[in-house]
What does this fold into?
Amino acid sequence: MAKAVRERKCLVTGEVLPSERMIRFVVGPDDVIVPDLAAKLPGRGCWITADRTLLDKAVDRKLFVRFGRKALGREGKITVPEGLSVQVADLLRKRCLDYLALCNRAGQLVGGFEKVRSRLEGGKSRLVVMASDVADNGRSKLCRGIENIRVIDIFTRDELSRTLGLENAVHLALLPGGMSESFLKEAGRYLSYLGKNEDQ
It folds into this structure.
């Protein structure tokens, strides 16, 4: 049975969307607003669509302050950390890389140009993670003649190599599986936050 998708209302727009496309925030210790990317922290939370401009609007319009006072049921000094939108971007990026490492451990990731190309040609993968600093023609060579491939190229070679414990992680293919699906959801949320679309 398919897992039911939970929906939440955006604090800024009022739009109701699947929670996986949103970011939860709670009032943490000392009445400080805390991002809860895993949506597991205790307490009443508010949700904002994964979009950096909307998060900035929430801060500018003092929506977190209003939410915090309502959540606590009292007046108080609700603090929004300086640079919250940057903090969220960093956390989303780290979460994507953590899931990529889990894909590797689960055997759902293949690295190396020839191995990746082989999986793509054989129809065993349709999702490629490619280093953002790969040579200009590297991408066209890898994907030449193959249709309907998703390419995510927002992480550097160094980031991918450190995350996966590989010497030179440039071309990666994700194989079908639960961890790959989880990575794709996290990557989609991060790309949405950055205002980017997944490459098709």
